Amino acid sequence: MIVPVILAGGSGTRLWPMSRALYPKQLINLYNEHTMLQNTLLRLSGLDGLADPVIICNENHRFMTAEQIRKIGSERFEIILEPAARNTAPAIALAALSITDKIKAESAAEPVASQEGEDPVMLVLPADHEIKNAREFQKIITAGARLAAEGKLVTFGIVPSTPETGYGYIKKGEALDCADPAFMIDRFVEKPDYDTAVRYLESGEFCWNSGMFMFQAGTFSAELEKFNPDMMEKCRKAIEKGAKDLDFFRVDKGAFEAIAEDSIDYAVMEKTDKGVVITLDAGWNDLGSFDALWQTGDKDAQNNVTSGDVLVHNVTDTYIHSDGRLVAAVGLDKFVIVDTKDAVLVAPRNQVQDVKKIVGQLKAGDREEAKTHAKVYRPWGDYETIDMADRYQVKRITVKPGAKLSLQKHYHRAEHWTVVSGSAIVTKGEEEILLKEDQSVYIPLGTLHRLENPGKIPLELIEVQSGPYLGEDDIVRFDDVYGRNK
Fold first, then answer.
1. Are the C-beta atoms of 189 and 203 separated by less than 8 Å?
2. How far apart (Å, rounded) are the C-alpha atoms in residues 87 and 206?
3. Can you tell me the distance from the alpha carbon of 356 to that of 378, in angstroms, rounded to the nearest whole number?
4. What percent of the chain has pLDDT over 70?
5. How do residues 149-186 score in pLDDT, each as one tens digit?
6. Is the dihedral of CA 264, 266, 271, 273 positive or negative?
């Protein structure tokens, strides 16, 4: 049995403004109609012996993550919520412990049908990679499963095509006596400078470090216990003291936040004697920057990659993305332009790694542009700010069929709702009002209220807020079907 474990907790700061803290790159469709998370799961379709996936994500992304998985037809999965970012080693440990506990519970419930001592193989995949050749990828995954079942800790080394300075490297050691392209791991190497990367490429002895792994849950847990018992103990407490929350498993916040950040490379792979690397040449890219999006995108005759409403003249080797309005560019070479509804990024392609420094400035100034897009997603639908100024804000709200917002009130603002399409049931104090297209209702400041879509099509309405303070933290919830307390 192979259990896919999808690491979906990243923030994607180098892809700002497309990627934001509350809507990161793994939840965005960067290169086709599916999001990065969806593509990660879809490329596993058809693999033999595949169990239900386990997804590790930040608790702020839980509803979007679950919805995206369901949209590709998957109803069986487990989502483990991280209350804070602690890097890959603790995240993988949570998954390993959860998988082991599930196997034990199933064995206790059906001792005859279960396989005593079964130790399932985990396939650990970041949710933000592109892999063009899914068939070759699955072939190598099958090879990795064979080695993992023998007690090896397998990582996948990407056959390098360029002297890339943005990736870590793995030096291959002695070849294993098997039919697969597998080697003992000689050592892991940090991101090199250009000249060193050239030497690595020319030697043929190095692979890019992909961050993808395969190993038995029990084997990984034992190795982490050996090299970092404190981390393993705190992860165990985080699971033991955790609890189900609707469709999610919420680990204990205190126990998990007490864990020191560490990657699986540092915590286990650089120390174990069980590590092996299998080489993979399947059109891989981690899409960690806009330069990577340019490299892998479909190019026009002038080597430009464009998406959205874009016009160019005398522009070469450039990446341009527009979320809506027309973007026109003249006389540019090797640039990146990204236009979203609330922010524009312009940078030379060779400096896009520094986009994260802009994000740092936004965070230091507590700017909303670091956290959210103009369109904000909620479990019931979404809203988009279309105008705002002192003491008023206008939003376009969409509520999914059958969904409803929390029963709530505000201390600092009143709201006026006008239905554009669909129908709404509005709770206003003790009243319950049915609104149809072109009808409206006024919610005075301090009035208990709720919005619900009883129909079979999305409910769209315009909300006008007025008052001295219009922040999203001015919400007091009294009842919420999604279990939110703020």
1. no
2. 24
3. 26
4. 98
5. 999 999 999 999 999 888 999 999 999 988 778 999 99
6. positive
